[in-house]
């Protein structure tokens, strides 16, 4: 049974989205703040991570930057997995504000991530998110201990609702 260390990315520079009026997946291109970088350096000192064999990362810059810092500090290789990307709030790739993101996230939460009977939504369902992240987890189940750098909603969906996951925190998850 593989032990995965799910490490949420450090604090991102969300304000860049508003400054550059980014839309859709462009909003996922922001790097970490200086505080976010420091958060990850502190996380790299977590003794549990010292035994990991590999880092697997989401393709988004905030997760990649987190993985790069951990890689440097722990002397581990990084593999990027496209399906570790964060929950997709708008499959049309048109949302363009924090307010719209909150609106979509609230609708997801109110419906427990499940489309109401006979309806569709523009957000990715919980089932879809859990399936794609679970497939990545399964792919690395031949290792003993693996670090996964990724995102709050993706991790919450994988392990069950546990509320907000702090930036640069470590959650232990065992594959079955």
UniProtKB/TrEMBL annotation:
Q: Which Pfam families match?
A: His_Phos_1
- Gene3D superfamilies for the chain: Phosphoglycerate mutase-like
Coiled coil ranges (UniProt) are: none
Which protein, by its recorded name, is this?
Answer: Phosphoserine phosphatase 2
UniProt-recorded Gene Ontology molecular function terms: hydrolase activity
**Which SMART domains has this protein been placed in?**
PGAM (SM00855)
The keyword Lyase is annotated on this UniProt entry:
no
Query: Is Hydrolase among the key words of this record?
Result: yes
Q: What class of enzyme is it?
A: hydrolase
Q: Which species is this record about?
A: Paenibacillus konkukensis
Protein keywords: Hydrolase
Any idea of its EC number? 3.1.3.3
InterPro entries in the record: His_Pase_superF_clade-1 (IPR013078), His_PPase_superfam (IPR029033), PGM_Phosphatase (IPR050275)
